[in-house]
């Protein structure tokens, strides 16, 4: 796809070229760019007024023909994109690469968290509902096309997709990338967007903040000690949004950054420069 980026953007971002991935021309009018792997996000370009479906599910196409799709941790490797333009249909298959995920062990989690009482179970359910509602709100912005930047410094202490054992018991996989840094370390917006949620004390995720990057792509930040923005705020890439904390199910100060496309959890680390 043609990115139509101004030259100065290309010049400043050569270091993050790995983040752009690969471009595949699927038909004479439709291309997909990004990492063709599980956890990947692909930005599509087609003719405006096209109707696009991914595996039979309609995908929103912007007026300029841009669309975006994302693939979860265990997404099927064989996928079909159907493009309908003024009654003429083209169907193209494409494949994703399979990922191998790491195993990680987290110990020292308090009983309050591993065996939550009914009150906390109810609270966690309410949190999850609130998060789902916040992610369901998205604008038609196309900020997901930016070269993302890391939201915080720090050693990478957790990666997307890893199988987690909490106090020796297998739990849900980890979906974020973790940056270990002291409490109070600044967290900045990795790309432009609109703040959709900030709650200081969710049961599992502690201080939780969600930014909508447009068309179903969002970032979620967990375990924060402090938020500097509120729902509805418009943020630019690099703006201060929060501070790193150790809240919720966390065993040391770190930022857990997650990304979604709709209800698919995608890997944020594929969108930022290597470090
Ligand atoms: Zn984490």
Question: What features would you describe in this structure?
Answer:
By secondary structure, this protein is mostly beta strands. It has three helices and 22 strands. Strands 10, 13, 15, 16, 17, 19, 21 and 22 form an eight-stranded antiparallel sheet that branches. The protein has a four-stranded antiparallel sheet with strand order 1-2-3-6, with no helix packed on it. A hairpin with a 3-residue loop joins strand 15 and strand 16. The two termini are 26 Å apart. The protein binds zinc ion. The site of zinc ion has 5 residues, from loops.
Q: What is shown here, in short?
A:
11% of the residues lie in helices and 40% in strands. With 275 residues, the chain is mainly β.
Rg (CA only): 19 Å
Overall pLDDT score = 91
Largest sheet: 8 strands, antiparallel
Tally of separate domains: 2
The sequence of SSEs as H and E is: HEEEEEEEEEHHEEEEEEEEEEEEE
Q: State the helical fraction.
A: 10-25%
CATH architectural grouping of the largest domain: Distorted Sandwich
Shape: globular
Q: What is the β-strand count? A: 22
How much strand content do the residues show?
35-45%
How far apart are the termini? 26 Å
CATH topology of the largest domain: Glucose Permease (Domain IIA)
Class based on secondary structure composition and strand pairing: mainly beta
CATH superfamily name of the largest domain? Glucose Permease (Domain IIA)
Number of helices: 3
CATH hierarchy, class of the largest domain: Mainly Beta
The unreliable regions are 1-18
The distinct bound ligands, ions and cofactors come out as: zinc ion
